[in-house]
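In this section we walk through a basic example: taking a raw amino acid sequence and producing a predicted 3D structure, encoded as discrete structure tokens. The instruction is simple. Fold the sequence below.
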Amino acid sequence: MYTLKAGIMIDEACKAGKFISNGRVILYPTDTIWGIGCDATNPDAVQKIYEIKHRSDRKTMLVLMDGPIMLSRYLDIVPEAALEIIDSAAKPTTIIYPGARNLAQNLVAEDGSVGIRITSDPFCRYLIQGAGKPIVSTSANISGKPSPSLFSEIEPQILKLIDYVVNWRQEEASPTNPSTIIKLDEHGKVTVIRP
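The resulting token sequence is shown next.
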């Protein structure tokens, strides 16, 4: 039974990964809440998400990656403190780093920073590997409205604008929570933004 479920999960991740690779936007279950995603290096796909959410591109979105090796490709420097936080985090943790590079410019804040979460969720890891790129992860809601922790809470108008809706974990009934958010400066100083 577990093997069948794992096979379905991997198939869905590969299918959604192809949409991402082709510049499309997907709706998917993240390691926290339901999210909208795309190739984090594709500014046109990123712009489409801002439009779907009616969100100003001055409010940046976070990026999911599958490990420290990928992280090093998209930051000028990976602070030692970041690796310690990632290793010891008891729940999903987003870190805002200085010195973003090789990402869509409309994902990067004016000060050059970007929020990145290393995911341990199996589906998200397969999805990132299938896409071959880091992926955007932003809540599946119109900006300013509540974030959906369950698939059933996603507004129909969002569903209509998505290129592919992932068929995985849609039936889950246990609400999930957003990630912890921590900011690191270039000296490794830690500021907790959301516990």
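Looking at the output, two observations stand out. Residues 147 and 153 are 8 Å apart (CA to CA). The two ends are 37 Å apart (CA to CA). In the next section we compare this with other chains.
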